Amino acid sequence: MFDVIRYRTRLDELVARHLPAFEERFGYPPGENVVVAASPGESAATLEPEFGPRVPADVGAFFDVIAQVSLPDFWNGYFLGPPSWIAGLHRAREPQTVKTGAGEQEVLVFGSDGGGTMYAVPLPEGRPVYKLPSGELRDGCYRHPLGTADSPPIIADDLEEFLTVLADGLESHVANGSPGPFS
Q1: 105 lies in a domain?
Q2: In the chain, N or C terminus with fewer CB closer than 10 Å?
Q3: CATH of the domain at 111
Q4: Mean pLDDT of successive 10-residue segments in the chain (183 residues)?
């Protein structure tokens, strides 16, 4: 099982290493780059009224420990959660499903980047992780911008792989300014 507490520690350390030289390197002060601990008002329990038992176990485990990851100063930004945002997107149907080659699949959007891309997992399976670049939303269903019947791009087998690739990308970025892992 994925060690979310260890992951949080790793993210905290990466943010701490990145920010001291940020202004000198980029010419402007950093925003608020934080990993926020789950709380009674922002945790996996916040997802239950909207999703019921369909929340994948790994998504629930992540948001039981971490309510939000906000990294506006890594690439063009990466944002995971908070659970109230996730539930609100689903409730507003922005999106609620994605069009795949097999039809429509209900999804849980758990994050985004600063460029309009969202990251989602199908329900109730929780795998794979879809990359949803800006595309058409019709009646709550995301349609890939290429307009094909194909599924949106798969960028990770599951949430653990997504989080690992993101943290490894952050590590490379802090070390040498490398581009984002899901570009």
Answers
A1: yes
A2: N
A3: 3.40.1580.10
A4: 92 92 90 96 97 97 98 93 98 94 92 94 96 91 73 93 95 85 83
Q: Which residues of 160-169 are buried (b: 16+ CB within 10 A; e: fewer)?
A: bebbbebbeb
Q: Tell me the one-letter amino acid at 163.
A: L
The residues near 150 (Cβ < 8 Å, ≥ 6 apart) are 100, 101, 144
Count the domains in the chain: 1
What one-character DSSP code corresponds to residue 105?
E
Task: Name the CA dihedral angle for 138, 77, 30, 66, rounded to a multiple of 10 degrees.
Answer: 90
- Is residue 113 domain-resident? yes
Count Cα atoms within 13 angstroms, Cβ side, for 129. 22
In a domain, 77, yes or no: yes
Global model pTM greater than 0.85: yes
